[in-house]
Design a protein that fits this description.
Length: 244
């Protein structure tokens, strides 16, 4: 397992091509970008299959995708938010990077749910955290300070630890009245559920995700996935403070 400090498309594409000279198959979590897709095309031509994990990619030559149905994740987040808020008001949305298709899809469906089912709420423009917890921390404090009628937050991308830290440190007390929905049961999210900072977490089933990814990598390497990308859509888990 390799982790990237530089999340730029250029660095990701370069790392993919380098790995392609060393391994038989690659699973990758990456933002969708023409450079990344071009690298996947080159790897596929060299018979090195690439599987998109958690966030799908638009490269038609990818071997497949393992992750959630993010349309349903976004709708479920909208349902939870609209039902838990005591009164309609403004709702903030955090995304890490819109080029992560999982985040983009979640936000799109979250917004369309409110248009369809809860039009009395006002959804604010998305705040991009650039996957940076410090930036997310400061953005959250600014949002709390400038939006007195804020009733909820949907954390759809990176920087969740920064958002939760800001909510926990909020001196005005506004954060205590917010409904907060986030994605993935990280240690910070688990702690936030325990202390009441976050209300609902929609999460990948980690073990299933790992097993399905390895299984697809093996199948792709053995040439058992001919006929286009294979989609392995997993059921997501729902956590509240009462079922940890």
């Amino acid at each position: 397992v390799e982790h990237r400090e530089d999340l730029s498309a250029e660095a990701t594409a370069e790392r993919l091509l380098k790995l392609g000279r060393e391994v038989d198959a690659i699973a990758v979590v990456a933002a969708d970008h023409p450079r990344v897709n071009e690298a996947i095309d080159r790897l596929s031509a060299n018979r090195v299959p690439v599987v998109a994990v958690i966030s799908d990619l638009t490269a038609t030559t990818r071997a497949g995708y393992v992750g959630l149905d993010n349309w349903k994740v976004g709708a479920t987040a909208g349902w939870a938010m609209s039902r838990l808020c005591k009164t309609p008001g403004k709702v903030g949305v955090f995304v890490g990077n819109h080029r992560y298709l999982c985040q983009d899809m979640c936000e799109i469906r979250f917004r369309s749910y409110f248009r369809e089912r809860a039009p009395r709420f006002q959804l604010l423009d998305a705040i991009t955290t650039f996957e940076d917890s410090n930036y997310a921390y400061q953005s959250t404090l600014d949002l709390l300070h400038h939006t007195p009628d804020l009733v909820g937050l949907f954390i759809a991308g990176g920087g969740k630890s920064g958002v939760l830290r800001a909510l926990g440190e909020d001196a005005s007390g506004a954060a205590k009245n917010l409904v907060v929905v986030g994605l993935d049961l990280t240690p910070e999210a688990r702690s936030g559920l325990h202390d009441g900072t976050i209300d609902v977490v929609l999460s990948h089933p980690t073990r299933q995700l790992a097993e399905a990814t390895v299984d697809l990598l093996v199948s792709a390497t053995a040439g058992q996935t001919s006929g286009g990308p294979v989609l392995r859509v997993l059921p997501f888990e729902i956590y509240t403070p009462e079922n940890l």
